[in-house]
Amino acid sequence: RGKIQLLDHAQFLTTVSSEAGVVNLCIVSPVDGVRFSVNENADPDVRTDHLAAIPRLHPAPGSSQALLFRKSLTLPYFRKDLCLGTWQGIYLIDLREDSADPVRIMATCRPSARRQTFNVNAVARDATQLETEISKHLPASNGAIFVHEMHTSASLSLGSGNLEPVLNRVVPEQWHYDFFQHTMEGVDDMTGHLKCSLLGCSATVPVLES
């Protein structure tokens, strides 16, 4: 029971008119049991390891497990192509007991006023605050800033403090030895993929010029 498939994301941008913007993907139906993640698009073992980890994260089967992940995603696009990292793909995670019915996804596109890509020197296995970097590259003006990180072993979240020690208990390093198949890149790699699925890789925040 349970399956994860990579989505062909080109289908969501066929009718977009603006050159650059963001697209929101929302699962309209079914209401429960199906969710999104943005994660590793190359090695299928990452998807297999997700399915093996989900019952360990939340033992109760079915729709309640899907609450671990996202019902909607917002992602940047440029010239009818999503601006994803080299190894990023969109997962459709189907945890329904009976998954015969099709999944309906609504795509909503909005143009962006400006955008900037920049690199961050983040400390490994730690939390790096990004407010200074973001304001340096995109000075505040009234509206909203959408931030997307492009690495599948990193996550993005809003809040204060360091979540890494907590997540290390939620997704223990021991799983690398117990059952993970995606192990070639070290003990912190597949755990990082799972943390990314739990936290996400994007965030939208309101900003005021003052």
What's the count of strands?
A: 9
Largest sheet: 4 strands, antiparallel
Strand-residue proportion: 25-35%
Provide the structure class.
alpha+beta
| DSSP summary: helix tally | 6
Question: Can you give a write-up of this model?
Answer:
The protein is α+β, with helices and mostly antiparallel strands. Helix content is 22%, strand content 27%. The strands form 3 sheets. The protein has a 4-stranded antiparallel beta sheet with strand order 5-4-2-7, with no helix packed on it. Strands 1-6-3 form a 3-stranded antiparallel beta sheet. A hairpin with a 2-residue loop joins strand 4 (72-78) and strand 5 (81-82). The radius of gyration is 17 Å and the shape is globular.
Jot down its keywords.
single chain, 210 residues, alpha+beta, three-stranded antiparallel β-sheet
